[in-house]
Amino acid sequence: MTDETFFEFPCQFPIKAMGKTDIEFDLLVLEIVRRHTSAINENEVKTRPSKDGNFLSVTVMIEASSKKQLDAIYQDLHDHPLVLMTL
Fold first, then answer.
1. Partners of 18 in the beta sheet?
2. What is the pLDDT of residue 80?
3. Which CA distances in Å does 20 have to 23, 50, 53, 67, 71?
4. Quick one: pLDDT at residue 11?
5. In this predicted structure, what is the pLDDT of residue 3?
6. Residue 70 belongs to what H/E stretch?
7. What is the pLDDT of residue 2?
8. Interval 26-41: pLDDT, tens
9. Domains in the chain, start-ordered, CATH in brackets?
10. Residue 54, phi-psi category: left (phi > 0), alpha (psi -120 to 50), beta (remainder)
11. Torsion angles phi and psi, residue 4, rounded to 5
């Protein structure tokens, strides 16, 4: 795996995850992202239900400090059984 990236750190970076609406999915995503970053502005968290309301997307804007940090966040999200997709 290479550490090459097109980003200049630190930078603002949106983390997006999708899952079922019937759980507190937004809180789950925030909990996972908070493991890897010191501060999340609650105004920078956006949720959006799917057309039929069965799924929820959660976008958290963070101040990313490195590619390693982003990789760890995405890995933790991917590993959680309630997270269906990440972008």
1. 57, 85
2. 97
3. 7, 10, 9, 28, 23
4. 93
5. 62
6. helix 67-79
7. 55
8. 999 999 999 999 788 8
9. 11-86 (3.30.70.260)
10. alpha
11. -65, 145
Secondary structure in 3-state letters for 16-84: EEEEECCCCHHHHHHHHHHCCCCCCCHHHEEEEECCCCCEEEEEEEEEECCHHHHHHHHHHHHHCCCEE
Residues making up the chain, counted from first to last? 87
Question: What is the rounded CA–CA span in Å between residue 66 and residue 64?
Answer: 6
- If one counts every other C-beta atom within 10 angstroms of the C-beta of residue 56, the result is 21
Residue 19 burial by CB count (10 A; 0-12/13-18/19+): exposed, middle or buried? buried
pLDDT at position 39, please?
82
Looking at residue 63, its pLDDT comes to 94
